[in-house]
Amino acid sequence: MTAELVRGQNHPLPGNRLEIRVSAGTPLVAAVTLGDEQGRVAGDGGWLAHPGEPHLPGVEVPRQAATQHRLAVDLGAMPDGVHRVHVLLALPGGRPDAPADFGAMAAPQLAVTTPEGAEIAGFTITGLGAETALLAAELYRRQGAWKIRAVGQGYAGGLPALFADQGVPEPATVAGQIQYAVERERARSVAPPPPAPAPPQPGPRAGAAPAARAAGAGPGTDASSDTSTDTSVDGDTDASDNASAGIDYRHPRRRPTRAPAAAQHSRPDARADASATSAEPATLNGGPTPPPTVPGQAPPPQDPAGRPAPTGPPEPFAGDAAGWSMEERLHNQIWGMFEDLARTVAAYRSAEDFARSRYEQELDRLLADPRTRGGAAADAARDAAELKQVALVDQARAVLDRDLAQLTVEAEVVDPALPPAYAGWENPCWHAYQVPAEPPLAVRLGSLTLPEAPELRIPLLARMPLNRGLWIDSADDRRLALDTAVAIAARLLASHPAGAFAVHALDPAGSATQALAPLQASGALVLPTAAAGAAGVGEVLGRLTERVDLLQMAMRGGAADALPPGLDTAEHLLIVHEFPYAFDDRAVNQLRYLADEGPGAGVHLLLVADREDAAAYGPVLDPLWRSMLRLTPLPSDHLADPWVGHAWTYEPALVPPGSQVLTEVLRRLAAARPAYGP
Amino acid sequence: MTVNMTKGQKISLSKADGGSLTAVRMGLGWQAAPRRGLFGSRTREIDLDASAVLFADKQPVDVVFFRHLTSDDGSVRHTGDNLVGGAGQGGDDESILVDLARVPVHVDQIVFTVNSFTGQTFAEVQNAFCRLVDETNGQELARYTLTGGGPYTAQIMAKVQRGAGGWSMTAIGAPANGRTFQDLIPAIVPEL
């Protein structure tokens, strides 16, 4: 069983003998430090394995930089004082083909396996930017047993900064030794590369380089090295600047500067892809330096080194938001896009409104004064006012178009990454549907659009558990309303693990039998089907009310263990079709009770109803309607966002006509069910 | 380097390297009222409020203050109301962040104000200041010491305005009286 770790996660290790496999797109240097309980490297040289001194008791590291590493670790052979084993990765500096930092290369991957090769845990180190060295993972002793923790902490200051952080004595010297050893090994193993065109290249590779680096790399000299990179931004690159191009001394939290010029001059072919990828972390880290330019002008052209101007918008990627899991990150990203679109459009609308009102005021002023009311001067003034309005609207439109383009690109990246619960039924991920093991964070109820951007559909995600009932308004199209309800119910079922979600249906008139057939046929409609007649309504409502009562009593009394033993833990969804047909007063009251108290006890409502049908009840039902989220089977602009209050056009997530995806998904769900028991 | 602004002084926010300012933050800090007697709740708390009013062609179009923390377009954000003040050590107790690049095109001036919501004049508040910071590098652009500012309950601090070459800042520093920004609008308009 492989565990894919995220940053900070730990995982137990089954034995002392392990192999750690590292794979990356470009050659990396691997090193291992042994630390005491505080994670400090305490010993004098005997606690650090690096390419220059690859052997330590219990661990061995490769002698050279490579794209694949296998580190054999025997935790049983570690000295007693060792409590932590750190796996470090670094970019070999001063190579023409090496990326300038981790942000410019594919994410390195780490896998921990048994000596036989069975994988225990994996960790993909994502989200790196201007770092050149990395504390990838940590093996640590916890109550006699070893565990692994995914760390992924990058250091823009490179190995010297990393070593300094770990308490290695003379970090800069050690980093220099590693650099020297790697380059020596490289020179021995492969034919020396053809001489690079740029004169600084041979410098870093020769033996003098480590010394130079060691001299300038101590933590105390950060400021001076920073100023040297700063001057290179201003455009005056001199020889001393190029000579130190191999290692990046940038402070992790300092604003990122341009990649060293020497590395770029010597790799004209690699420039395009490297700059395309490295532009993104540079801007994401916040605070990119705007290049020298006249303020207020169009984006400046690319600088001579070919790197795109850092003022451009960052390249969007899926999961660009905070969150503990990819699912949560995507959820937050979608809500972020929702808010951004709302605010961008609000800016445009307010500019447009202002332009119009100013135009009208100016016209009023012209008309109010008899001297300016007529004649050529009046026409000219009117034209000027109109031009002013048009110019402002054009300007606002240009800003809106820029923002919409960015959001559209983001939506295109995000859409293919969506899990089924967030994706429309037309999304291919539904064809690869597998019954999930965890309940979803949220489910998609439909999509939202604004008239300014009809192409940009923002998924409407509702957090689970639903804290409001859903009301599909069937006033316009009853059949479509029922289809919408079935699609939502099927999605809720499919997004939950088998058996964790149960659907009941009340269809006293029997008119929904055909539409509910897919749910029924797949066996997904776990509890008695479409209950027929008033008796069925009373029976189902009574059962659910009793369940809510029980759970509430147990929760309020703090007596969860007093619940009857057979009570299932599933969430329940009650579909009510053609409300209030066959409902008596008692049933209506029970329904209102379920709408109010049900969500807290895991009983949710999905009402398919036309408010007019229930008009006879008068205002008694108003609170019921208000308490539910109204959805429409046809696109309609009735939903307001929480920030600005635009009217968004809601469109339900329906199965594309003729598609069998829903049936297929329900079939797989039904197939998974017996595995969990009846 | 802090510019201790004098009234009406105008500084351009374009930077030395030619890039113009993209994000500013208004910070407001003051020292909480000292605890009085045995019952802490009887201490008269001091509540100063920072506000930013967005003007288009001398008409107020939006405002960011403690009841409307984000402008509709999202470019101006208030980080939240502080009702009691801080340690008076120079940290900001309230902040308003302005992303100048995202300010809607029709907004050409943003005025920053300070009000005493609980009514104490600046003569009674210890260690009160407001400042404008370049958010991209943390450099302070302007700072006013409010303490000792006389019997006033409000100050129209500064404005940033859009010009042909980018945004520039003008220090106003005009004292006024009022509980919230609404009371100040008549006093702001002559400064535009």
TrEMBL record, chain A:
Domain of life where this protein originates: Bacteria
Location of the TerD domain: 66-164
Pfam families registered for this protein in UniProt: TerD
Stretches the record annotates as Disordered: 184-321
Ranges of Pro residues composition bias in the record: 191-203, 288-303
Biased composition (Low complexity): 204-232
Family: Belongs to the CAPAB/TerDEXZ family.
Protein name: TerD family protein
Organism: Actinacidiphila acidipaludis
UniProtKB/TrEMBL annotation, chain B:
InterPro entries, alphabetized: Stress/Tellurium_Resist (IPR051324), TerD (IPR003325)
The TerD domain, residue ranges: 1-179
Regions annotated as coiled coil: none
A Pfam family of this chain: TerD
Record protein name field: TerD family protein
